[in-house]
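User: I'm curious whether this sequence folds into something compact or stays loose and floppy. Could you predict its structure so I can see for myself?
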Amino acid sequence: MAKESKGQRIARIKEEKSGLDVLENIYEYAIYSKAVDPEDIDRFKWYGLYLQNKDPLTPDDETQYFMSRIKLVKGSINIDQMRALAGISKDFAKGTATFTTRSDLQFHNIRVRDLPEIFFRLNQVGLTTVYAAGDVPRNIATCPVAGVDKSEIYDVSEIATELYDYIGGNKSLVNLPRKYKIGISGCSKHCMGHEIQDLAFTAVEFENNEILFDVCVGGGLGSNKQFSIHIGYVKPEQVLSTTKAVTEIYRDFGLRENRNKARLGHLIDEWGIEKFKEKLDEYLDFKLKNEIVQEYTPYRQREHYGIHDSKISGESYVGCAINGGTITGDGLYNLADIMQKHGAKTIKVTPTQNFVVVDVPTQNANDLAKDLSLLEMDANPNPFKARSISCTGAKFCKYGISETKNVAIDLINYLNKKFPDFNETVSISLNGCPNSCSLPYLVDIGLAGKKFKDENGETIAGFDLVLGGNLEGNKSVFGEKMKLKIKPNEVNEVVENILIKYLESSKKQLNLFLKDLLHSDEFATYDFKNKK
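Assistant: Here's the prediction. I'll summarize afterward.
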């Protein structure tokens, strides 16, 4: 009999047992210390669990460790939840805790035997791991300052709640062809990143003060690396119906034969956008409006740092950057204590692995920001820290080739010392493998994990260099991979040399400099590893 392909195997195990039904098995494995069935390991994803790499520092430890992803609705964590998460981190995750680019929180080093207690503690404070991973709708991407930002185009809080109510644990969506990512935002800075969602709604205000949502479909960064396609506009009250229609089309017609060709964007490629829109019309009792394509904020400017007056009288919000999303259990405890001290209750995690304290009494906002800065949680981050993100990396991720978190932190500190007066935000990504979890193809300077042979013929784990990416609506471009392999100890100097070359040029914007450099005769002879 022919060997199953990966796609065939996953399709079979999903048909044999729903991912949601593995919860009973999780408790059995935990209580009776049973070995986990390899096929249930795949189903564990429906509860936010991924098998992780063995820790290279403890190679003799045979324990099966998992990454656990907590789904944060609207990216929100209140003080009680923060303390519960900190306790889980300290008691069961060896102090780990990181924010993700989908506004979730992840633990590492989780043992199956501890899952019942972890699930209990999460449930006590209204948190869940259900549908944090797997072939299901993932956490909805939205703006962290929805409802409090004075400059927002539209407060999407209520619509986002409707969407969460629809997708959260919805058993009719338990077996999608692949993962499925939805975003909705009324942000004037377009921080949600609609260009890379499977389905996205972005508020636009027209000249007659009418608010409509730009509907985009088919974006993605994996095997379907492409920007989403604008298909029209809907009214706020039509967002939920449109979401249901697109989601059901994907569920019922998505391509399931090959997991590498199973995202919504692949279905649209197969059908063509016109056929997709025709099918969507069959599901809706209204027509999308075909207004003009809008202009959007460049990626490097999509942030909410600093202290800002809120829409809510007497309150402010404070946006802070942390290093590579690494918050830790101690960091969560300390953040909760500082917030309580200054009368704040809630943070929202951002799409760049950072956070915003959204409800600070205005008279306390400066003092809160000062206290957080002592923990390297910066309301006024340097231009390298502000837009740097990093994935899990080789330390924990089974797909990881290269270490990322520590490399990213070292790079940020190095650049800040080398360029203390640099005043332009630089978007940087450290990705531990050739995939795109930390968006290396969307930033000014991306580093993607790669194995290659060094000058001695030894295979090492380093990085590909990717330059010139940007999200900006229909002006979006993917970065270009250079014919250059970088060792981990070369990362700092290579990035430094790129910035030196930029500062020596006549260009006034790094992204424009990189665009010109990539298409110039000079680029062919430029040595990134040596200063000129």
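Summary: DSSP finds 14 helices and 18 strands in the chain. The chain has four domains: 6-124, 157-283, 303-373, 388-525.
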